[in-house]
Design a protein that fits this description.
The complex is a heterodimer of chains A (244) and B (339). Chain A is an alpha/beta fold and 244 residues long. Chain A is 40% helix and 25% strand. Chain A has one domain: P-loop containing nucleotide triphosphate hydrolases (Rossmann fold), CATH 3.40.50.300. Chain B has one domain. In chain B, helix 3 crosses helix 6, helix 10 crosses helix 12 and helix 13 packs parallel to helix 15. Classes of the chains: A alpha/beta (244), B mainly alpha (339).
């Protein structure tokens, strides 16, 4: 459970012959924040799905420390301490907010009472205490996103993979979220990987960036290195801009 | 469970009220109707326990009611009657003559055991596939009941069950069923199973073992069905496999769908409404036929009205009358907003 690195090694994923990922390698260490960026359709979400066991690998493997975890079911990956959120929010809509968060703690073996205590602490931390008794379906979009992150944290993950956590949030909400997320690796000793299209958020939050395009890694490094990388500029802005 | 004490009290109060009303009025017909109502409650609450928490429609429930009814019959029909009631019965069972109360309990366990064995592989299925296999399971159970003559007397009517179920016993068991369904809903199993009802992928992503939890709920639901079936058997004292098939499945389902499958409150309220409507319409049918309003006798009015009511609920209020919150929680929220 205390493994300190999560590794994708030469991971390839195919959908009906189409290569969604072609030999991508990436390491996430506990205590750091890595941004996963790239144009639409570059394979970012597929990489999270591959790591969490939701799609089968065509080649390569995923390891937690030395242990190979690719081939496990999503449920088993979750129980290894890897939590995720979804690009399109997936809350338990007919359950209350507090029940949503409690469930993740219960699934990891917490007692009913411990799960309640943990959920209440997380609700306060995410500014959702007033919403505790609302149904998941009744929340605003930004609140749903927050509940999803809080729910992922209730499992005490070693690694947290967030798929566009700030999508649909206004600027103030994004800012609050940024501060909450920035504090997580130190406070909880977890490794955080974030997909987002908000470059401002990504640049301010992440120590390391990993850039995908058409299912391949085109750059990786610090925010500054990646920003200057011609391949990245080309992928984002087109061929002309790279030479301008 | 603590948060549902108010709900449990209100729902149990409804049952007690129904019993009191029938006893005070002193009409034997009402006594029979309330006993039937309480038995239906046990069955519908069992179905709610599985459907409401897992989100999967199950047609197989009535089959387990049948397993319970026949189990209790075989164990409790007096030895000297068994030669006539079950002529082909296996010799080792011929001398068995348990107290009906004991045999009702064993019947519940038997239905649960059968469910545990047959359902494990089915619990991986979701959506339409799960519904169709549960229907197939009902057909299998019905076919076994009509053909295993040694234990069921085949398609013929089985008679000779000692009359053991009265209005008080059925009401007592119904109240236990209400409490049991609420406890299950708030248990670890119930909580986690409900996550899979709302979103299977997200449930798997937090580490929920969906097939195992569904299986547990299915087994407990069969326990309820088995006890309900045995109670009914010792009330009616003679029945045939037809009693555990499509028409009855439809009535039980309509009770749950109209009330709201996701809540225990919905199961109870739906059972009350459909029972009252059913009896009222049957009475009306009788009156119309006696008055010879039409040339032909009126048949099937009850079923048609129930079917229309179910369609109306599904269109206007797809989650039923109590789609998400229990009555106790609704009242508490109302009080809080008034403050």
């Amino acid at each position: 459970m205390q493994e300190s690195t999560l590794n994708a090694i030469d991971v390839s994923v195919e959908f009906a012959g189409l290569k969604a990922l072609a030999g991508v390698s990436l390491t996430l260490t506990r205590g750091e924040i890595v941004g996963l960026i790239g144009p639409n359709g570059s394979g970012k979400t597929t990489l999270i799905n591959a790591i969490t066991g939701q799609v089968r690998l065509a080649a390569g493997r995923v390891t937690l420390g030395d242990e190979i975890i690719s081939g496990l079911a999503p449920r088993q990956v979750a129980l290894k301490g890897i939590s995720r959120s979804f690009q399109i929010v997936r809350l338990f809509n007919n359950m209350t907010v507090v029940e949503n968060i409690e469930a993740a703690a219960l699934a990891r073996g917490d007692s009913l009472r411990a799960a309640r205590t943990k959920a209440e602490a997380l609700l306060t931390e995410f500014g959702l205490a007033a919403r505790a008794d609302e149904l998941g379906a009744a929340l605003s979009y930004g609140d749903k996103r927050r509940v999803e992150v809080a729910r992922a944290l209730a499992a005490n993950p070693s690694f947290l993979l967030l798929d566009e956590p700030a999508a649909g949030m206004n600027e103030a909400e994004t800012d609050t979220l940024l501060h909450t997320l920035a504090a997580l690796p130190k406070a909880r000793g977890l490794g955080l990987m974030i997909i987002d299209h908000d470059m401002g958020l990504i640049m301010r939050l992440c120590q390391r960036l990993h850039v995908l395009a058409s299912g391949r890694t085109i750059a990786a490094g610090t925010a500054e290195e990646v920003r200057r990388d011609p391949a990245v500029i080309e992928a984002y802005l087109g061929h002309e801009a790279a030479h301008a | 469970m603590k948060r549902h004490i108010l709900t449990a009290a209100i729902l149990a109060g409804l049952v007690v009220l129904a019993v009191l009303a029938s006893q005070l009025l002193g009409i034997r017909l009402y006594d029979r109707i309330v006993t039937n109502l309480c038995i239906s409650l046990v069955l519908v609450l069992g179905l709610q326990l599985f459907m409401g928490n897992s989100g999967i429609l199950s047609f197989a429930h009535m089959g387990f009611m049948g397993v319970g009814a026949y189990t209790s019959a075989v164990l409790s029909i007096p030895a000297q009657m068994k030669g006539m009631a079950l002529p082909d019965l296996y010799p080792f069972l011929q001398g068995v003559e348990l107290s009906p109360y004991l045999s009702i309990a064993i019947a519940g366990v038997m239905a649960a055991v059968v469910a545990a064995v047959v359902s494990y592989p089915l619990m991986r299925l979701s959506d339409a596939a799960a519904v169709i296999t549960s229907f197939a399971l009902l057909v299998v159970l019905y076919t076994v009941m009509t053909n295993w003559s040694a234990l069921t007397n085949g398609p013929r009517t089985l008679f000779g069950l000692p009359k053991a179920t009265d209005i008080y016993l059925s009401a007592f068991v119904a109240i236990l069923a209400v409490i049991g369904a609420l406890i299950f809903k708030e248990s670890r199993t119930g909580r986690l199973l409900r996550t899979s009802r709302d979103d299977e992928r997200a449930a798997a992503a937090i580490g929920v073992n969906i097939p195992a939890l569904r299986w547990r709920a299915f087994v407990v639901a069969a326990l309820f069905a088995g006890i309900g079936g045995a109670l009914w058997g010792h009330f009616i004292t003679s029945f045939s496999p037809k009693a555990f098939y499509l028409k009855e499945t439809f009535v039980i389902l309509s009770m749950l769908v109209i009330g709201g499958a996701n809540t225990v409150t919905g199961a109870v309220v739906g059972t009350f409404i459909v029972t009252i409507a059913y009896e009222g319409l049957r009475g009306l049918e009788g009156v119309l036929n006696e008055a010879k309003v039409t040339g032909e006798p009126v048949i099937g009015l009850t079923e048609i009205v129930l079917a229309l009511a179910m369609i109306a609920v599904l269109i206007l209020r797809p989650g039923g009358l109590f789609p998400t919150r229990e009555i106790g929680a609704l009242l508490r929220r109302r009080m809080e907003t008034r403050k």
